[in-house]
Design goal:
The complex is a heterodimer of chains A (about 240) and B (about 170). Chain A has about 240 residues and is mostly helical. Chain A has a single domain, classed as Ferritin. In chain A, about 65% of the residues lie in helices and about 0% in strands. Chain A starts with 9 loop residues before the first helix and ends in a 6-residue tail after the last helix. The model of chain A has no long low-confidence stretch (mean pLDDT about 95). With about 170 residues, chain B is an alpha/beta fold. Chain B has two domains: about 70 residues, GMP Synthetase, Chain A, domain 3 (2-Layer Sandwich), CATH 3.30.300; about 60 residues, no CATH class. In chain B, the strands form two sheets. Chain B has a four-stranded mixed β-sheet. In chain B, strands 1-2-3 form a three-stranded mixed β-sheet. Chain B is elongated, with a radius of gyration of 17 Å. The chains are: A mainly alpha (about 240), B alpha/beta (about 170). Chains A and B meet through helix 2, helix 5, helix 6 and helix 9 of A and loops of B.
């Protein structure tokens, strides 16, 4: 993958757009199912922010590709192997603790990623990132509050939050090893954001020696993405161009 | 951040459009309307989204176009500009007064992006828009629209909405 010099490539923008789109779809699945109405509204709002970024990114990706594909074509008319999101985004929501762990790790990455793009040479991408970075910082804040509340809560909430962190942690390596802009250096900033939250939440940060699944950026996904896409794409595929 | 280059009349027309979700303020009050340029019977309005996924943008786009057409511009275009990113600092003093009068607490100064621990940030000081008490608590960091949070006043006991400092 190329570095971040000059205008971004189709592949780079597509990767970020797919991250945001799949994250949005997953978070939206919480609608009407959260444990309190405020949280229902929160997760739906975060999903909406992610969807907004996804639309801007996929529209731009389509223009860079210059093959006549717009945001809808990219979102609804590609198969699983053609998606470039990291595996973290497509993992099932699990219980609320798993969702919060995913959101914490994801938003910390997105803030670092977008922050770097704000100062980059691609002006269009810098503008999209400048909006998204503020939103993702708010998402991080929300996830951090919940991580601390659950981790430093009851025995049961602590157990669940630690389990979620252990479960999701292996999927965070891919964010940095396969960052579309060669962002290995982003991990230090990410750790600097995430570790104090885990610490304050009395949670143990997993060791680095474990499993590090990857493949999303090359189109090798978990089976979970296929089910997610089936639900997300069915209407558009059954009724191409439908509007409501 | 609103710059009027040409087409002042067209700008005044577009500036009257009311935000579809915050019905007490106009898009000019909110800093969403950036400029309107005219050339003969052609008008190009430039707007900026508050949040990337704000669903009100489609309605705003349509209402700006309709207002300009009704006012006589034959060819109307509404352009979305992302950079520089919208901030609640762009909400005008008039806008802030209108929000407060409608029971919606206006935002404080926009925060800089940071990934610090939530507790390390100074808490927002939000005065109740009804009784003015600053003994208020955040009930929910998200509200009925992407731009608002839900708060409660310990003074008068009423819940109220607060435009998030952003």
């Amino acid at each position: 993958m190329s570095t971040g010099n000059g205008a971004a490539s189709f592949a780079q923008v597509l990767a970020l757009g797919d991250d945001a789109l799949i994250a949005a779809q997953r978070l939206a699945q919480w609608t009407s199912r959260a444990h309190e109405m405020e949280e229902d509204v929160a997760l739906a709002n975060i999903a909406l922010d992610q969807l907004g970024a996804a639309r801007l990114l996929l529209s731009y990706a389509g223009e860079l590709e210059d093959a006549g594909r717009d945001e809808d074509a990219l979102a609804f008319l590609r198969d699983d192997r053609q998606f470039r999101n990291v595996l973290l985004m497509e993992l099932p929501n699990g219980d609320f603790a798993v969702t919060i762990a995913k959101l914490l790790f994801m938003s910390a990455y997105q803030v670092g990623r977008y922050q770097q793009l704000v100062g980059g040479q691609d002006e269009r991408l810098a503008a999209i990132a400048a909006k998204a970075v503020k939103e993702c910082a708010y998402h991080f804040d929300h996830a951090a509050l919940w991580t601390i509340r659950l981790g430093d809560g009851t025995d049961e909430s602590h157990r669940r939050m630690q389990h979620a962190v252990d479960e999701i942690w292996p999927y965070t390596y891919e964010l940095f090893t396969d960052d579309p802009f060669d962002g290995n250096d982003l991990r230090n900033g990410w750790l600097a954001a995430v570790e104090p939250v885990l610490d304050k939440a009395t949670l143990t940060r997993p060791d680095d020696g474990g499993w590090q699944p990857r493949g999303g950026r090359d189109g090798r996904h978990t089976e979970h993405l296929s089910y997610l896409l089936a639900e997300m794409q069915v209407l558009h595929r059954a009724h191409p161009g439908a509007q409501w | 951040m609103v710059s009027v280059t040409t087409g002042t009349d067209a700008y005044q027309v577009a500036a009257q459009v009311v935000d579809p979700e915050l019905r007490v303020v106009t898009i000019a009050d909110l800093g969403i309307l950036r400029a309107v340029d005219t050339d003969g019977d052609r008008a190009v309005a430039t707007i900026t989204p508050t949040y990337s996924g704000c669903p009100a943008m489609d309605v705003i786009r349509a209402e700006v176009a309709a207002a300009l057409r009704t006012a006589g511009w034959a060819e109307v275009e509404v352009v979305t500009q992302l950079h520089p990113a919208w901030s609640t600092d762009w909400i005008t003093d008039t806008g802030r007064r209108k929000l407060a009068a409608a029971g919606i607490a206006p935002p404080g100064p926009a925060r800089t992006v940071s990934l610090g621990l939530p507790a390390s940030r100074p808490p927002d000081q939000v005065a109740c828009p009804r009784c003015g008490s600053t003994a208020t608590d955040e009930l929910s960091r998200f509200g009925s629209t992407p731009c608002k949070a839900l708060w409660r006043c310990d003074g008068c006991g009423d819940p109220f909405e607060h435009v998030k400092s952003f």
